[in-house]
Amino acid sequence: MDTLEETLPRHKTENPHNYDDLTLAKRAVEIKAACKDFPLLSENTIAMCWDSVTGIGEERMNEIILNKEWEKTPQKERPKAGVHKTVTIEDAEEPSSWERNVPK
To answer: How many CA atoms lie within 13 A of 54 on its CB side?
Structure first.
């Protein structure tokens, strides 16, 4: 007879960044402390920031801060506003396409 633990496996937390157990524990403690320091930010936002900073590394983070790279304009121009090119504006006087295809 199988026990309940054998038939229903326990939930395993996701680890998409492949952190080891020590790093996961450190991450949990630091995120919990940051949530107390920044109560208006969600825990997920703080976790995303922690993962970003940890993934970049301290040396690269200091380089970004010293060179003020966050203040530079991005190399790739991004549209600030735009027009939907897939939208079709039909004449109000003409029947729409679905009205034209309705059997009479």
So the answer is: 15
Question: Which amino acid is it at 23?
Answer: T
pTM for the full predicted model:
0.55
pLDDT per position as a tens digit, 50-89:
998 888 888 998 898 899 887 877 777 766 666 666 656 5
Distance between CA atoms of 94 and 104, rounded to whole angstroms?
17
Per-domain boundaries in the chain: 15-72
Which residue, chain included where needed, has tokens 């997920």? 44
Dump the DSSP string for 62-84: HHHHHHTGGGSPPSS---SS---
Please identify which residue in the block is written with the tokens 């995120």: 31
